[in-house]
Design brief:
The chain is built from 26 helices and 17 strands. With 816 residues, the chain is α+β, with helices and mostly antiparallel strands. Strands 7-11-12-3-13-14 form a six-stranded mixed sheet, with helices on both faces. A five-stranded antiparallel sheet has the order 2-1-4-5-6. A three-stranded antiparallel sheet has the order 8-9-10. β5 and β6 form a beta hairpin. α16 packs across α18 (544-563) and α22 (657-679) packs across α23 (693-717). The protein starts with a strand and ends with a strand. The mean pLDDT is 84.
């Protein structure tokens, strides 16, 4: 929605003061590593969003914008760190100035603050994805499916889909846990009813038979059947002495508790398994760290591109050693995750047995009061509370370590005197005086009513929990189905564009390339074709260069899907460098042809790559900014192709000939290399691309003369007098420039071969500058709107034309 006319950076990151004028055109910032290029990226990111993505997120530790956004010499003065962008609205053409400083990153000033510009700036602040770094490319390709889904949905502004999915998943887990708890409560309540009625199973007919026996004794109407809502004690009249006691039922309750204490095979087995798993955890404390760091390692591993760790910036001797180290950590975390699952399963089994035991204690407690043993009642209550605390500690790996010894020695936590206490309680219950048959029946029905009511409530709670869990599961599954269906349609469009872009870049060897994006329950699987041999994850067979190409193509497909016509600017920080070297020109053509209305701000340290972007027409000659180096005191040393003559003139105005000569040589080296590529000149191959300036001069002069001869021969074969005159004019310009260069050849040689120019005066050096400028102008379009290098179309031996980008110069080289 907006594009950048100018960039002003003050005391921000590694930059003291810098002005760039992209003028809404695509720009390449070229320079060696450490020259400050990424500082420009951070500045644009900050000005638009109020944040620097490089200083936030995983792996940034104690780094922050407030502390480390200002230049190191102004670290205590965040107000001095300021970025100003001159912007233009891409639709209505309105221009304005956007400023933001580190002291108040959440605020910006906009002049003029028109509604349209304010809307555009606010829109840009919500789209940090307009800035892409090399580290971020791989997260779309080599991330595990769950992480890829998060990153892609964040880019597509679909985070709410995954947030809602996680909430529904959490609700499902919670209702599942509650259902399990109500199941244990039902089992305990059923056991209490079964013990009281002295039944082996709770069958309706058997319950009805026992209850009707008591009712017959009291002369009450018999029940036809027992169902959930049946009132078992209907018609029973209370006695003046209170509820009374049911001796046989009480004995069965105490015996059940004593039996559990004596033998508890399920609890013992679960506790032993849990203790064994905890021993493994105790033997290797790093397992907990492995679990905590698992996600971080999963994110970092795909980012390994060299021998520098992407998580801590530590340098390793070998990239394979670093990758093996991280893969080992990931493998350990997978083993740790397996152990964690084993621990949690055993802990749940132990907790279930403890809940059953607490239910037995709760039914036995009232009987101690009946026989006047208040101390026993308090002891049983204390034991029940202790079991509840023990159960609570089973909920996490951290607290489980506190109860490991108890699991091995005494998972019950039984007081030493409890066995004798229960024996004495049993004796006291047996010693209770016998009651009349009618009183026994009355008490039995009253207790049966209480326990049946508790069972009814427990079953109702379980039914409610079952319904909640069923509903949660149905909603979760339905949401996944609808979301995945909608995402599938969305990804189909992204998938198509992604495949088209990648095929365009790799048309020479992967013209039939296809890709598949498959969303499912919060994950996003990506598989790509490998030369018609099948669909595989990108990391399976494709090289890292191809994977990086896929990452950029997928990013472009995604952001085009999100922004559509609003996609007008993108900042690519060292991203294009990672594209396979054999396909960079095609990548330039992709950006130029598919995204003609997008302003790309591109950083790279690769000289050849920068020239390819220029010769392909992605950027013009004025849009190449060179960062020559960097210092703490001064920041980047930079210059652009369009202003280095002015910089040289400025140096000469100060009588600083050495500085002017240095700039002239550096820029002549760059210009001659660009011209040599444009003219398809022949130079001696050097693997490091560091060609001598003299060799480039000679190659360019020789090739230019050769091409003008071809042009003259072509014009003559076509009997084209206008073309003949044009060629003659070009030859005359060439002769004049070559002659001027010859006159100053002594100075050119000094400039090329040694430092004799250090003793020159301005009077000596002015003619050298003019000669070089005249020579460079031979290969530059004269149109102020173009000023591109002239270039050869066609292949060596089959040249077609000598022309410029705008077509003002178009000399035929083909014979009739």
């Amino acid at each position: 929605m907006i594009q950048l006319l100018a960039i002003r950076i003050d005391e921000f990151r590694g930059i003291r003061e810098l002005d760039l004028s992209p003028d809404c055109r695509s720009v390449v910032i070229l320079g060696p590593n450490g020259s400050g290029k990424s500082g420009v990226v951070d500045a644009i990111d900050f000005a638009l969003t109020g944040n620097v993505s490089r200083l936030s997120g995983e792996g940034t530790g104690g780094v922050s914008l407030a502390k480390h956004g200002p230049h190191v010499h102004r670290r205590d003065d965040p107000a001095a760190a300021k970025v100003t962008l001159t912007i233009r609205h891409a639709v209505n053409g309105q221009t304005g100035t956007l400023s933001r400083c580190v002291k108040t990153p959440g605020q910006f000033t906009l002049e003029p603050e028109t509604p349209e510009l304010l809307e555009a700036v606010t829109w840009a602040s919500l789209h940090p994805e307009l800035t892409l770094s090399r580290r971020e490319v791989v997260k779309y390709v080599n991330a595990e499916p769950g992480k890829r889904a998060q990153e892609v949905q964040a880019l597509l502004k679909l985070e709410r889909i995954d947030e809602t999915r996680r909430l529904l998943k959490s609700a499902l887990s919670k209702t599942s846990s509650e259902l399990k708890g109500t199941g244990t409560a039902v089992k305990n309540a059923e056991d209490a009813v079964r013990r009281h009625l002295d039944l082996t199973e709770l069958l309706s007919e058997e319950i009805c038979g026992v209850i009707n026996g008591y009712r017959a004794t009291l002369g009450l109407d018999l029940l036809e059947a027992v169902i959930a809502d049946t009132k078992l004690a209907t018609g029973v009249q209370g006695a003046p002495g209170g509820r009374g006691y049911d001796k046989l039922s009480a004995l069965r309750d105490v015996d059940a508790l004593a039996a559990f204490i004596a033998e508890h095979p399920n609890l013992s087995a679960a506790a032993a398994e849990l203790a064994a798993a905890l021993d493994l955890l105790k033997a290797d404390p790093t397992i907990l760290d492995a679990l905590k760091h698992r996600h971080l390692v999963e994110v970092g591993l795909p980012l390994v591109a060299n021998a520098v760790c992407p998580l801590c910036d530590q340098t390793w001797q070998d990239v394979s050693e670093l990758r093996a180290h991280l893969e080992g950590k990931l493998a350990r975390s997978e083993a740790a995750a397996t152990l964690e699952g084993r621990i949690r399963k055993s802990a749940e089994e132990v907790a279930e047995e403890l809940q059953r035991l607490r239910g037995l204690i709760q039914t036995a407690q009232p009987h101690s009061v009946t026989v006047g043993r208040g101390g026993d009642h308090a002891a049983l209550l204390e034991w029940s509370n202790d079991l509840a605390a023990f159960e609570a500690n089973l909920g996490s790996l951290e607290t489980l370590a506190q109860v490991g010894s108890r699991l091995e020695t005494n998972p019950l936590g039984t007081p030493t005197t409890l066995t004798s206490t229960l024996s004495e309680l049993r004796v006291d219950i047996e010693a209770l005086p016998d009651q009349s048959t009618a009183e026994d029946a009355r008490i039995a029905l009253t207790i049966a009513e209480e326990r049946w009511s508790q069972l009814r409530q427990a079953r109702a709670s379980k039914a409610k929990a079952t319904a909640a869990r069923t509903t949660a599961d149905a909603v979760y599954q339905a949401y996944n189905e609808v979301a995945d269906s909608a995402l599938t349609k969305l990804y189909d469009s992204v998938e198509s564009n992604f495949s088209d872009y990648y095929r365009q870049i790799n048309a020479d060897d992967e013209a039939a390339f296809t890709a598949g994006l498959a969303p499912s329950a919060g994950k996003l699987d990506l598989e790509v074709d490998f030369y018609g041999l099948g669909m595989f994850p990108p990391m399976a067979y494709h090289s890292e260069g191809h994977q990086d190409g896929m990452g950029v193509c997928l990013y472009l497909a995604l952001i085009d899907q999100v922004l559509g016509e609003d996609f007008r600017v993108a900042v690519l920080d060292d991203v294009v460098t990672s594209v396979d070297t054999n396909h960079r020109r095609q990548f330039c053509n992709l950006l130029k042809e598919v995204f003609p209305g997008v302003q790309f701000i591109i950083t790279t340290h690769d000289e050849v790559w920068a020239r390819q972007m220029q010769s392909s027409g992605l950027i013009d000659r004025q849009s190449l900014v060179r960062f020559h180096g960097w210092s703490v005191e001064g920041g980047p040393l930079y210059g652009s192709a369009g202003d280095f003559w002015k910089q040289i003139e400025s140096d000469l105005d100060r009588d600083d000939v050495p500085s002017a000569a240095h700039k002239l040589r550096r820029n002549l080296e760059a210009s001659m290399a660009d011209i040599a590529e444009s003219l398809q000149a022949r130079v001696v191959y050097r693997p490091d691309n560091s060609h001598d300036l003299g060799a480039l001069f000679n190659a360019v002069k020789g090739r230019h003369g050769e091409l003008l001869k071809k042009a003259a021969s072509s014009a003559n074969s076509w009997s084209n007098e206008v073309a003949e005159q044009q060629v003659e004019s070009l030859k005359a310009d060439r002769t004049q420039a070559i002659q001027a260069q010859g006159d100053e050849n002594w100075a050119i040689n000094a400039l090329v071969h040694n430092n004799d120019w250090a003793t020159m005066t301005r009077a000596d050096f002015d003619p050298v500058v003019e000669t070089c400028k005249q020579f460079v102008d031979l290969f530059t379009c004269s149109s102020a709107e173009c000023e591109s290098w002239i270039y050869v179309s066609g292949t060596p031996g089959n040249e077609e034309a000598l022309r410029c980008s705008c077509g003002a110069l178009n000399v035929n080289l083909r014979q009739k």
